[in-house]
Amino acid sequence: MSDNWLNKINWSDDGLVPAIAQDAQSGRVLMVAWMNREALKQTAEKAEAVYWSRSRKKLWHKGEESGHIQKVSEIRLDCDQDVVLLQIEQQGGIACHTGRASCFYSKLENGQWVATDAVLKNPDEIYRK
Amino acid sequence: MSDNWLNKINWSDDGLVPAIAQDAQSGRVLMVAWMNREALKQTAEKAEAVYWSRSRKKLWHKGEESGHIQKVSEIRLDCDQDVVLLQIEQQGGIACHTGRASCFYSKLENGQWVATDAVLKNPDEIYRK
């Protein structure tokens, strides 16, 4: 399989593109993370989400520590070729490092951010030291 | 209403944050654009999406030319406070400047990006000169 499709992406100056992970069943937006060329290539090959960790400066196969693998059923690109959208199945039902289903758990209510979603699992239990 | 909630955002060095617009009914991700502080403030006040156009370097009240206003029913923020998620009702059913429902109309199939979604309206008819 040719890698030409990777050349279509408008990579940022840092060589990255943001990727949205959406639950393929519920449609819920679970998280946004970054990918470099190799991360997106591996994501397509493995059909599992691989991101680029900007803090750790390395490839991050989502779930490698937590077991919370994201099975990827579809990859889309937007009209500016600078945002990727993944349809995924979230293993363990937890995408967020806080132990919640989605990273978007804060909702604006009357001028305040309110954490509306429950913590499903203690992060200390997710990431064993 | 205090503006303190705007201080919680991790604005980029350029003072921007990406905002995802999701159809509140279908759950479809329609587009991603950028907001500065004023754009997000106006979005909350008007309950209509206002973005920051990086190319035109000005506030962009989505639909101001096309009539394709986005009514905002919910604003969420992710765990890193650096991505905003809007639940919207898309007036006219067209979010993309190409005349499609969603900007994410290209799908990766066998190593190629394929435009899978129909153009609902000719862009020349949307943006009258």
Which structural class do the helices and strands of chain A define? alpha+beta
Oligomer: homodimer
Largest sheet of chain A: 4 strands, mixed
| Helix share bin of chain A | 10-25%
Cα separation of the termini of chain A: 39 Å
Q: Provide mean pLDDT of chain A, rounded.
A: 95
Over the alpha carbons, how many angstroms does the gyration radius of chain A reach?
15 Å
- Strand tally of chain A is 8
Our count of helices of chain A gives 3
Low-pLDDT residue intervals, each spanning 5 or more residues of chain A: none
Give the strand order of the largest sheet of chain A, numbering strands 1, 2, ... along the chain.
Answer: 2-1-6-5
**Global outline of chain A:** globular
Q: Give the H and E element order of chain A.
A: HEEHEEEEEEH
* Percentage of residues in DSSP E strands of chain A: 25-35%
Largest interface (CB < 8 Å):
A-B, 39 and 39 residues
Molecular structure report:
The structure is a homodimer of 129-residue chains. Chain A has helices at 4-7, 37-46, 123-126, and strands at 17-23, 29-35, 50-53, 58-61, 70-77, 84-90, 106-109, 112-115. The first copy, chain A, is of the alpha+beta class. The longest helix of chain A is centred in the N-terminal third of the chain and has 10 residues, at 37-46.
What keywords describe this structure?
homodimer, 129 residues, alpha+beta, two-stranded antiparallel ribbon, 3 helices, 14% helix
Summarize the structure.
Chain A has 129 residues and is of the alpha+beta class.
